Amino acid sequence: MIRLLYLSQASSALTKDQVQKILESSRRNNPALGLTGVLIHGGGVFMQVLEGPEQAVLRMYLKILEDKRHINCKIIYITPIDKRIFEGWSMGAIERDDVLGFDQIMELHHQRKEVVQAKVFTNAMHEFLDILKAEHG
Ligand SMILES: Cc1cc2nc3c(=O)[nH]c(=O)nc-3n(C[C@H](O)[C@H](O)[C@H](O)COP(=O)(O)O)c2cc1C
């Protein structure tokens, strides 16, 4: 399995309903594909973690790339995994600008650090999971 994290920009200011539509298709399609993850939206930016079988993750990423609701997709972290972080979340949702970890990841992205700091990403993802659990049980 792999875990992939990418950033993108919402192509326009998306309403809650429009983001909800994305989550609905994710939750409809992802379970059969063995995909889990989280979609964070805020401040005109998306950040999504996709985890699951390598081919399924990469195929879904290619499909998502074509989606006109966002632009400038950039993979910022991709790693082989034996264990999911987002087990049970066909697509968790976090809607806010001030997520911990989100800022750090944006910062790393802006700096385009050559050394990928795996720990920063995995720590941030565990923070996302804590937020999901706190907000949605
Ligand atoms: C930021 C973003 C994240 C998305 N994530 C997923 C996803 O995890 N799973 C999914 O099936 N579709 C996702 N989509 C939607 C796909 O691009 C596509 O519209 C959808 O899979 C089509 O589903 P359908 O063939 O069932 O209508 C995402 C779209 C955007 C803009």
UniProtKB/TrEMBL annotation:
SMART domains: BLUF. Residues 1-92 form the BLUF domain. Gene3D superfamilies: 3.30.70.100. InterPro entries: Acylphosphatase-like_dom_sf, BLUF_domain. This is BLUF domain-containing protein. It comes from Candidatus Methylobacter oryzae.
